[in-house]
Amino acid sequence: MNDTPDTPAVSKLRRNPLVRLFSSIWLGITLLTLILTYACIFSALPQVRGALELTEMEAFSHWLFVLLIVLFTIALVTATCVRIHWNLLNAGVLTVHTGLLLLVGGSLLYFSTKIEGDVVLFSPRIEVV
Asked: Which of 5, 50, 69, 86 is most buried, taking the most CB atoms under 10 A from its CB?
C-alpha cells in the first residue's frame, strides 16, 4: 500500500487514461516480449533476413523495431515515475529500470554509429630474414 499520500497533481496524473496505459506493467511486458521476439528472429535466423532481403543493420533500423523500442522506453519511464516511490526500499526496482534504460540507450548508440560492410582479413605471416 502507499505509505505516503499523493499530491493532487499526482492523483490527477494517475487518472489520465494515457498515463494509465503507459504505466501498465502488462504493456511493458508485452512490448519487451515483442522486442525480444523480433531481435531473436532477425539475429538468430539469417534465413529470415535473407528472405526479406534485409541486412542486420536494416533489420534493426526498421521502423517497427524502432517504434517498439520507443514505446517500451516511454512505458518504462512512465511506470517508473508514476508507480514507484523513490525511496531506499525500492532501490532494486529503480536499478533494474535504470539498467533497462541503459540497454536501450546503448543499443541506440551502437546501431547509430555502426558501419556495416566487409573487411578483408589476412592470415598472419612470419618471415624469416
From this structure: 69
pLDDT single digits (tens) 97-111? 999 999 989 988 887
Kindly report the pTM of this predicted structure: 0.74
DSSP string of 76-110, one letter each residue? HHHHHHHH---SGGGHHHHHHHHHHHHHHHHHHHH
Q: At what angle do helices 63-83 and 25-44 cross, to 10 degrees?
A: 150
C-alpha cell at 114: 555502426
Contact between residue 43 and residue 56 where contact means Cβ atoms under 8 Å apart: yes
Distance CA 83, CA 107 (A): 26
Contacts for 101 with CB less than 8 Å, ≥ 6 apart: 73, 76, 77
